[in-house]
Design goal:
Blueprint lengths: L1 E2 L3 H13 L21 E10 L6 H11 L2 E7 L13 E4 L20 H10 L3 E5 L1 H8 L6 E3 L7 E9 L16 E7 L3 E3 L2 H9 L3 E6 L18 E5 L5 E4 L15 H15 L1
Parallel strand pairs: 1-3, 2-3, 2-4, 4-5, 5-12
Antiparallel strand pairs: 6-9, 7-8, 7-10, 10-11, 11-12
Length: about 280
């Protein structure tokens, strides 16, 4: 189920269509509540935050709403609330290039008005999930340790990669097969995860490393760690296990039509587990 409840978003679309001289009529019904799929999972709602430069927000809306069947709302970055979502709901920061990646990826988005509420939501135990640029924003906001730096080859990389599941008792990766690598796309220039030696030791000790880059057989090799991340880290959670960030894009590997459903497998591990709880 998708629900668009943000009148400001509608006004923004109208403004830019007029500014760009687009004469195609605006479908206002798209921004009103409607049902596009029977609601299967009613216990948790999903909020997808949209920043200037986000480009994976609609992908996340589609996968979480149409594919997985959750009630899903968009949250514009200038909002000072989370559209009525509560502690048991999940806020997703999607991929993209928020604010054009100026200064550092995620460094400006971290100061968007809605982030005060996202931080508050996380600190009170609410769930927050950041993908690619969303991961970068979470690190910049201090909700996750470390930072994402420029890839070791200094280039933008867009390709499918393999991921080793490092922990399958954590809520985000609950029940996944650790012996079976997942495959999904990456698309980033600033994806090299970095953290100091003490910080890395703490991540390992607390079992916060959930995903590492690996080869198709699950081996951790220098070649498979294409962006040069410390300890081949592709995804981590916070100590309280309610905030998760990763660079690869599960939403781009969530349907059989795309020839890969490993992303759906990863997303279902957490969200279906939370429904069961």
């Amino acid at each position: 189920m998708h629900i668009f409840v943000n009148k400001k978003e509608l006004d923004r679309q109208i403004f830019y269509k007029r500014k760009l001289g687009t004469h195609k009529p605006i479908n206002k019904s798209r921004y009103l509540p409607y049902i596009c799929n029977s609601l299967k999972n009613g216990n948790m709602k999903i909020g997808v935050v949209v920043f200037p430069g986000s480009n994976c927000d609609d992908d996340m809306m589609h996968v979480m709403g149409d594919v997985l069947g959750y009630e899903t709302v968009k949250i514009w970055h200038k909002q000072d609330d989370l559209a009525g979502l509560g502690k048991n709901d999940c806020i997703i920061l999607p991929g993209g290039f928020s604010y054009g990646d100026y200064l550092r990826s995620g460094a400006i988005a971290r100061f968007s008005p809605v982030m005060k509420e996202v931080v508050k939501h996380a600190n009170e135990g609410g769930y927050v999930y950041g993908i690619c640029n969303g991961f970068q924003i979470l690190c910049e906001a201090g909700l996750l340790p470390g930072v994402l730096l420029r890839n070791k080859n200094q280039l933008f990389v867009s390709k499918n990669v393999h991921l080793k599941v490092c922990n399958n008792v954590n809520p985000w990766t609950k029940g996944l097969n650790r012996a079976l690598p997942l495959q999904m796309p990456v698309a980033h220039a600033d994806g090299r995860y970095h953290i100091g030696a003490d910080g890395l030791e703490k991540l390992i000790e607390n079992e916060q490393i959930l995903l590492r880059y690996c080869d198709e057989n699950g081996a951790l090799t220098e070649e498979s760690n294409f962006n040069g991340s410390v300890d081949a880290i592709a995804g981590i959670c916070n100590e309280k296990r309610n905030v998760f960030g990763m660079m690869p894009h599960p939403e781009r590997a969530a349907e059989s039509l795309l020839g890969n459903e490993d992303g759906k497998t990863l997303l279902s591990a957490f969200f279906n587990h939370m429904i069961a709880v």
